[in-house]
Amino acid sequence: MSRRTLPGSARADSVSVKRESRNQVSKSRKQTFYSSFFFTIKRWLLVLGMVMTLALIGMSLRAYGQRVWKGNDRITIALQTGQSSLKSSGVYVVSFLKSEKAVSVISFPVGIQVEASGGHGSWKVESLYPLGELNGKGGELLKHSLSEFLGVPIQGWIVDEKTDPGMNREGVIHNLQQILGKSMVAPRTTNLTLWDSFRLLSNLFLTHTSVGDWVDLSQSKILIQASLPDGSQSYSADPALVDHLSQQLFLQPQLIDEALSIAVVNATEHQGLGARAARLIANSGGEIVGVSDRNQISEETTIIVSSKQNLTSFSAGFLSSQFLADQVIQGETSGERADIVLVVGEGYYRYFAEP
Question: Does the keyword Transmembrane apply (predicted)?
Fold first, then answer.
């Protein structure tokens, strides 16, 4: 039987058809591969996006839960800029009162002697942060020490050695805004959360820099100047004048408006802790009616209010946050002749003594 031979043109057409068929199959396979590949990429990008979104939500909730400022009252910050080792450091206490949109700044001169919190003795103010950093707690030591010096609550601390000290109130506020802005995207040396930094920065941008006070302690009558054996100058402060200044700059208007009487009971072994707590409350505008010691030692700090209404008062919330209260309860307060009784426990002492 003879083999049939296709004409040349027909054979060429057949080869062309087969080649086209193979090309279509190859193209179809490539399309299927790329379609599957891009679908997989899109799916993983979607999963990655969801994970990142959940992570951001989690970080935001964590930052919100750990915030040091509730946003509806005063926030006070210990701020240190410049190099303390080069005597070009600037140490400030910056206080922002949202209800009045006012920023007050106290500038500490280099060389002023401040008692370091926790019984570490008297140190120059610019040396507090390096001293605390020996235990990795420089910011906390700076915050607690300045809080005790002024007798006012200080919630936050910020240290930025790359920023030059501000020479006036506007300069310090400008520096603070820049530091807060950088802290949103760069490593931060502060106890403020991202939520705190964002909220404070937003409020500062909406605040006119002319509203508030500037106090340069080196130019005030509060300090007593003395010459040291090495020829340098040292400063100490008059406690009564310091309290007078603090009561002018750091009042909490809500405490004054509520006018609830407050008694402080020291339930620790540490003499004078009740008086220190009472000073902080009085300098914030609270009405102190008594300070006493309790023979029975308590680990916990408790706030006792005289009525159910006072449970939700600003005063009770203020005391709870500032003194790390373990509980706020309604109970008998007539024995102390007060609307609120603050029972200070050992936990609060350790918070200051072991920053």
Answer: yes
Closest CA to 179 of 159, 153, 149: 159
- Amino acid identity of residue 181, one-letter, is G
Helices 273-283 and 346-353: crossing angle in degrees, nearest 10, is 80
Alpha carbons 174 and 142: distance in angstroms, whole number: 21
CATH class as words, domain 251-353: alpha beta
Among 291, 315, 293, 303, which Cα is nearest to 343's?
Answer: 303
What DSSP assignment string belongs to 173-187?
HHHHHHHHHHHTTS-
- Compute how many other C-beta atoms are within 10 angstroms of the C-beta atom of residue 324: 14
Contact 113, 146 (CB under 8 A): no
Question: How is 152-174 classified by DSSP, letter by letter?
Answer: S---EEEEETTSPPPSSHHHHHH
pLDDT surpassing 90 at residue 17: no
Kindly report, residue by residue over 27-74, the tens digit of the pLDDT.
565 566 566 766 677 777 777 776 666 555 555 545 445 568 888 789
Which residues does 324 contact at the CB level (< 8 Å), separation at least 6?
A: 301, 347, 348, 351
Fold of 74-242: Nucleotidyltransferase; domain 5 (3.30.420)
DSSP letters for 1-13: -PPP---HHHHHH
Taking the C-alpha atoms of residue 224 and residue 232, their distance in angstroms, rounded to an integer, is 14
pTM: 0.80
Q: How is the chain split among helix, strand and coil, in percent rounded to 5?
A: 45, 20, 30
C-alpha distances out from residue 57 to 62, 83, 191, Å: 8, 37, 20
Domain ranges of the chain: 6-65, 74-242, 251-353
Count of C-beta atoms within a 10 Å radius of residue 265:
22
Q: Which residues contact 191 (CB under 8 A, 6 or more apart)?
A: 68, 139, 140, 143, 156, 157
| Neighbouring C-beta atoms of residue 148, cutoff 10 Å | 19
